[in-house]
Amino acid sequence: MQKIPKRVYTLEFKEQAVKRVQSGYNIASVACEMGLAEQTARNWLRRSEAGKLEASAGKA
Length: 60
Prior knowledge:
mainly alpha
């Protein structure tokens, strides 16, 4: 069976998702619109608030 590769996200993409949530959009709807798991969006929000949001490691 083949391994499913992890998706690579740019810092700009992550920041866009975080800004939408911070501006009042529901985190579930932002995640759905951007093709993310809701938990991924929550993790990015938490990291952003801690000042630790970074681009994904790997090949873009």
